[in-house]
Amino acid sequence: MPMRTGIILVLSLAAAAGAQDFAALDRIAGDELAAQRIPGLVLVAVQGDRVAYAKGFGKASVETGEPVTPDHLFRVGSTTKMFVGAAVTAMAEIGRLRMDGPVGDHIRDLDPALRKLTAHQLLSHTSGLMDRTLMFGSHDDGALAVNIAGLQPDTLFAKPGEIFSYSNLGYAMAGRLLETVSGMAFADAMKETVFEPLGMKRTTFRPTIAMTYPLAQGHIENERKEVVIGRPAADHSGYWPAGSMFTSGRDFARMAIALMNGGMIEGRQSIPASVVSRMTLPQAAQADGTSQYGYGIGVSDSGGMKVWRHGGARFGYASHLVILPDRKTAVIAIANRGGANLTRLANKALGQLTGLPIPAQQSRPANPALVPSKLIGVYRQYTRTLSVTEEGGKLKVGAMGRVVPLEPTGGDCFRHESAGPYCFTLGADGRAKFVSVGSRSFARVD
């Protein structure tokens, strides 16, 4: 369930907004539908405190041909995390927990090695927990407690607070924390704390509720390169908080409105303004040096303007949200095909709405303390291992049976034309302690 992409918007307050051309949004969505062989998608544009555009494209199912509407439910993947971030932060605001307090004060059956983790670390991806997500498993409310109680010390690949590393497991633990402080099952706590106050009437974590509404079926590509419905549908309630929320384009838009308006929607305070402020405050820097993470949402500064974004990917579905809070403009894209990349669609739609350019990410000067020979080594997290070697003064990285050369891109980062960036975190002696690939970090083990 990836969190973000490397494309950064360069924005200018002086750019002319011009008249809205929603027909152009139709074309942009249609182009992506065809280019990526996506069965169906929903595109939503939010401006100020209202939904300015919401439209479905394609099919909810390749078998029935049912047209997609903005009210169809999709399982959105990791954009779920901003909702979990809002719920846990809300519990802190009313004194049910402390963001910097040990989660072991509330999760009593947690392994002693994990008890000192904090809500802040879980929500900002600085817990040191490995990234693990199981798509198939139990459907019962009790599975989340069983999952978290069963975690062992080796789920920590780094010291808490030492490195940013995206962890779905960390958000599963945050969901369990929400259960213990609210006294409710996770799905019920989310409904009472976030969905009902926002007026998200169809949004749920429970498949048996989602199936009672119009539901877009999740699709995958099979071994014959055909786009088919993924059967059985993936579900594991022990990992629901990491990315298993069912929502519609119209429901999702209510969160975007609240985030852009200090928690206000339709003239009422749906989320405390203090919760929105804490969620969208930079809490942890990512290794590429270009962006940070709040509580469930990526935050960056581009051309002097704030950009909030998050992507989502899971079995059969994908999503992407991007918000320009200073311009009170947001775009939401949701698709019913696993592996669909909706960043380009969201960025193009945002550019059409605002008239702002979307150039490539700017490079940074190389770190003079970076010595290639001090980067070579073996790095590991969970089941993945990376091997960094040097040949003829050039770095190479090997993973999953493939070795590719790396070229410096500025800062502490390198990349290959088909992979990266690979960004290194140095110790006091100049030797690399971690290598981060995108938003996930790997600890040096040699």
Task: Please give a quick description of this structure.
The chain is α+β, with helices and mostly antiparallel strands and 446 residues long. Helix content is 24%, strand content 26%.
The CATH topology assignment of the largest domain is Beta-lactamase
Q: What share of the residues does DSSP label as strand, in percent?
A: 25-35%
Biggest β-sheet description:
9 strands, antiparallel
**Share of helical residues:** 10-25%
Q: State the CATH superfamily name of the largest domain.
A: DD-peptidase/beta-lactamase superfamily
Whole-number total of structural domains: 2
Overall geometry comes to globular
Q: Would you report the number of β strands?
A: 23
End-to-end distance: 28 Å
Strand order of the largest sheet: 18-17-16-15-23-22-21-20-19
Cα gyration radius (Å): 21 Å
**Mean pLDDT metric:** 92
What does this structure look like?
The structure is a single chain. The chain has 446 residues and is of the alpha+beta class. It has two domains: 1-362, DD-peptidase/beta-lactamase superfamily (Beta-lactamase), CATH 3.40.710; 372-444, Lipocalin (Beta Barrel). The protein has helices spanning 22-35, 80-93, 119-124, 143-149, 168-182, 186-198, 207-210, 240-243, 249-260, 273-279, 343-354, and strands at residues 40-47, 50-58, 74-75, 219-221, 227-229, 246-247, 264-265, 268-269, 284-285, 292-293, 298-302, 305-314, 317-324, 329-335, 377-381, 384-391, 394-399, 402-405, 407-410, 413-416, 419-426, 432-437, 440-444. The strands form five sheets. A nine-stranded antiparallel sheet has the order 18-17-16-15-23-22-21-20-19, with no helix packed on it. It has an eight-stranded antiparallel sheet with strand order 2-1-14-13-12-11-10-9, sandwiched between helices. The chain is globular and about 55 Å long. The two termini are 28 Å apart. 51% of the residues are buried.
